[in-house]
Specification:
Helix content: 40-55%
Shape: rod-shaped
Number of domains: 4
CATH topology of the largest domain: TIM Barrel
Number of strands: 27
Strand content: 15-25%
CATH architecture of the largest domain: Alpha-Beta Barrel
Bound molecules: ligand C2E, magnesium ion
Strand order of the largest sheet: 18-19-21-22-23-24-25-26
């Protein structure tokens, strides 16, 4: 996974985590806030209730005192007339008028026991039927309910008190108070003048004796609150509570409340008894909305704060989310760009290896299908590049990639791993199924090309351990692929344990090679070369390495390919040259005439710019002239880079080395390249000899020999095993021959004894 993708994912994870936390925080906040608001509301509500109770109770005490004062006043006035009967009417009138005015009464009358009223205003009235008169005559000082005073055309409350003379009730004093006289005193103002509770004095049956609603400031109309409570409070209450009310009103020391709802308006009525008169109570009528507005004013403030806080939190959260989104988006864009670079192979337009690895890992973890990892490459792709150019090489890769892509099933993937090497993660049922799929790919690819068909070699590794690294699976598939390379037509091999054995063997060789070199286990063998012109004459010998390991002779084919892979060949080649020089020097010292010894040099050296200098140093170290040495470089070295090869040949020439192009004809040799290479000898590969009966093949050898000669090169044919082959080559004009027919490669001592000594 790319770093950016990981970063993006971790960002997204953090975002989700943070969002969850924010949501939880908001939820907690809302819950806590709601609980808090509920608490505030109930507390303020109960505080308001308590407050209202207290205010009403206080008012009741106040009203109680007021009534007390009124009753006291009436008593005092009554005590001023014990002998009213003896006073003249004028005296009484002036006394009553003065008292009336002084006490802001509408009127004060003295009522005789028969109900006849003595009024200073001269009205002729009889009040014998009035309740207050009857009650006062029984010795009570009382406060009447509002009654209509005919002479005044007004509603009045009468405070009546008996007039005693020697403990005998001789009449009653009745003080007329205008019904609205107490109104202002009875009402309760809440917060401001706009909200008021109407107070009233009621009797035990709920009848309103004096109401605050009766007198209103000038210009103020009586509102609903007052209107509905203007006759009897009990009637305003709901039926279910009426009995309780009547019961409460009959008791003393009761302070309570009830609710009433009239025409959609809600009221709370608080009431409290008055001590001054067991029949009287004080009641305050609160409009509940007005009461609640007080409460809501406070709670609204808190609520407003709460909402503002919520909005701020929401804005912060929103900003945070926007920032995160923008960051993630930016990251995604840059990630997509990076992905395009990191995930898309610039040549094929399909997956890069990195992407392949990611997808393959995921598929192997998620899918339960059987999978194999297939590695394939194009045989001698280098030649395609060299012969047709890089653009054509790229086109071949693209066509192959597109063909493979088309052949993929769901949940399969592929990628170009390097150069011309591809990996496919292929699902399969059985081996036949896999082979069929591969055959289809081979034929689909060949269908795409007309002039030449790229040859594909496949290695198949059946995945057992899904946790094994993709790279290792690929290595196994590569091992299998290498076993079938260069088979001329598309081929495949399943990776097997035997291959692992071979790998293990390679490992053992790698572990031992350095020690083998140090202990001279690598032995120099020589195979003579003979002239084909005239009688067979020794013209030189080829140095061939053998590994004498634990008594057995291991041929170079067993270890040189590995040494070329791990580049140990460099050391080995120098070692062999060193041995050759040593031998040449020895022969020189022994007076043996010099012969040309050819030494094989791997193409691996070509990548080392100091290669030729090193060869000359070795020769110089032994005092051997480079002209005694022929360097054999295989023609396939030209696949890597013809330019480099030409350069190396030139350097070799400049030091005086002989040069031989080895194994000519074994690969895709281009005759054309020969003209650029300043070689002395062209060594014809023994593949040409496999078909000596074929006239066409012989013609080709003849042509090659002629062409080499025309370029100033000698020719040698290797691998001559029969006299017939030797005769053929002689007839075709080949200069020299090397092969088992003449002599096999042999240890130096044998060469000295059998070849050099018999030379003469
Ligand atoms: P090469 O350079 O083409 O050497 C000739 C190979 O042909 C030798 O195989 C030789 O034994 C074999 N040969 C010669 N005559 C006949 C014949 O009549 N019939 C058959 N069947 N084979 C014949 P060898 O020694 O096994 O070497 C194989 C290859 O290993 C060599 O091919 C060369 O490419 C490489 N090699 C050997 N020694 C060295 C070395 O010191 N350095 C490097 N770089 N490569 C070496
Ligand atoms: Mg050779
Ligand atoms: Mg050869």
């Amino acid at each position: 996974m790319s770093k950016n993708a990981a970063k993006e994912r971790s960002y997204e994870k953090k975002q989700i985590l943070f969002s969850t936390l924010i949501i939880i925080a908001i939820a907690v906040f809302v819950i806590v806030g709601s609980v808090f608001m509920y608490n505030v509301f109930t507390q303020v509500n109960s505080a308001t209730n308590d407050y209202t109770y207290e205010v009403t109770a206080n008012k009741a005490v106040y009203v109680d005192n007021l009534i007390n004062d009124e009753l006291g006043l009436a008593k005092n006035i009554a005590s001023a007339f014990p002998d009213y009967r003896e006073n003249s009417r004028d005296t009484l009138n002036s006394k009553l008028e003065q008292l009336s005015r002084n006490n802001e009464m509408l009127n004060i009358i003295i009522v005789e026991p028969d109900g006849t009223a003595i009024s200073y205003r001269g009205e002729d009235i009889n009040v014998s039927s009035r309740e207050y008169f009857k009650s006062a005559m029984e010795g009570n000082t009382c406060f009447s309910q509002p009654i209509y005073s005919t002479p005044d055309q007004k509603m009045v409350n009468v405070i009546a008190s008996p007039i005693y003379n020697n403990d005998e009730i001789i009449g009653v004093v009745a003080c007329m108070r205008e019904a609205g006289y107490y109104s202002d005193e009875l009402n309760i103002t809440i917060n401001s003048d706009t909200h008021r509770a109407y107070g009233c004095i009621i009797s035990s049956d709920g009848t309103i004796i004096s109401s605050g609603a009766k007198v209103l400031p000038e210009g103020v109309q009586p509102d609903d609150d007052a209107k509905f409570f203007d006759s009897n409070i009990v009637l305003a209450a709901e039926e279910s509570t009426r009995n309780t009310l009547i019961d409460d009103f009959s008791k003393s020391d009761v302070t309570n409340s009830f609710r009433a709802s009239i025409d959609g308006n809600n009221y709370v009525v608080y009431y409290s008894d008055l001590k001054s008169d067991s029949d009287l109570h004080y009641a305050a009528i609160y409009n509940e909305d007005a009461l609640l507005s007080n409460l809501s004013r406070y709670t609204n403030g808190v609520l407003r704060l709460f909402i503002i806080f919520l909005i701020i939190i929401a804005i912060i959260t929103l900003l945070f989310f926007i920032t995160i989104r923008v960051t993630v988006k930016k990251l995604k864009v840059s990630n997509e760009r990076l992905s395009a670079i990191a995930y898309i192979d610039s040549v094929t337009g399909f997956n890069t290896y990195g992407r392949f690895e990611e997808i393959a890992k995921e598929l192997l973890q998620r899918s339960y299908r059987r999978y194999c990892l297939v590695s394939f490459d194009i045989d001698r792709f280098k030649v395609i590049n060299d012969m047709f150019g890089h653009a054509e090489g790229n086109r071949v890769l693209q066509v192959v990639a597109q063909t493979v892509n088309r052949s993929l099933l769901d949940r399969e993937t592929f990628a170009r791993v390097s150069s011309d090497n591809f990996f496919i993660l292929l699902s399969y049922k059985d081996d036949t199924d896999t082979i069929d799929r591969i055959k289809k790919i081979i034929s689909a690819v060949s269908y795409e090309f007309a002039d030449y068909v790229p040859v594909l070699s496949f290695g198949i590794y059946k995945i057992v351990d899904r946790n094994m690294s993709i790279r290792r699976m690929g290595d196994c598939a590569d091992v299998a692929r290498h076993t079938v390379k260069y088979r001329e037509k598309g081929s495949w091999a399943f990776y097997s344990n035997a291959m692992t054995e071979a790998l293990r063997e390679e490992k053992t060789i790698e572990n031992e090679m350095q020690n083998a070199l140090d202990t001279h286990e690598f032995a120099l063998y020589l195979q003579p070369k003979f002239s084909l012109v005239g009688p067979a004459r020794l013209t030189g010998a080829e140095a061939l390495v053998r590994w004498i390991r634990k008594g057995s002779v291991i041929p170079p084919g067993k270890f040189i390919p590995l040494f070329e892979k791990n580049r140990f060949i460099i050391k080995l080649d120098y070692y062999i040259l060193d041995q050759v020089c040593r031998r040449l020097k020895k022969w020189e010292n022994e007076g043996i005439p010099p012969i040309l010894i050819s030494v094989n040099m791997s193409r691996v050296h070509l990548r080392d710019p100091g290669f030729v200098d090193k060869l000359s140093e070795i020769c110089a170290a032994h005092g051997v002239s480079p002209s005694c040495i022929e360097i054999e470089i295989t023609e396939s070295a030209a696949y890597d880079s013809l330019d480099v090869l030409v350069d190396v040949f030139r350097q070799l020439k400049s030091y005086g080395f002989h040069i031989s192009i080895d194994d000519f004809g074994s690969g895709y040799s281009s005759l054309n390249m020969l003209k650029d290479l300043p070689a002395d000898v062209l060594k014809i590969d023994r593949v040409f000899l496999t078909e000596t009966n074929n006239q066409r093949a012989n013609d080709i050898i003849g042509y090659v020999i002629k062409m080499a000669r025309s370029l100033g090169m000698e020719t040698i044919c290797e691998g001559i095993e029969t006299d017939e082959q030797a005769q053929l080559l002689r007839s075709l004009g080949c200069d020299m021959a090397q092969g088992f027919f003449f002599a096999k490669p042999m240890p130096c001592e044998d060469f000295e004894k059998n070849i050099l000594e018999s030379k003469d």
